[in-house]
Sequence to fold (134 residues):
Amino acid sequence: MTNSDADRGGHDHQVPAALIAWRRIFLHRDWNALPELLADDVTLHTPADAAPLHGKEAFVASLRQSFGLFESFGYGRDFVGDEGHALEFRGTVGSAAFTGMDIIRLDKAGKVTELVVMIRPISAMMARGEAQVR
Fold:
């Protein structure tokens, strides 16, 4: 995979338009625009759910709920490749800071077919769970 930050230094690997739209949607929490980026049979793997979630409705509902708990969120580096794309992020839930990666697969039409969310440290996930219960 190629770090897109390096792309600005002379590499010609392009960030797909879907990832640019993805960042905008998440940073502005524009959940109504998200389904348009998703394949109908999209799959979501999160640390909060033991089994993957399937379909646009479950995908959007899960992310909307999570982002309702985040006090801050921002994307950092992105890595673009032929097999998929990874976006680094950071945020907070209460006083717990977290960092993680969104690993995204796109189909040939540029629709998201799969998202794998990885977050560390575990204490941030525990804080998310506690906030969700409240």
Notes: The chain has one domain: 2-133. Residues 1-12 have pLDDT under 50 and may be disordered.
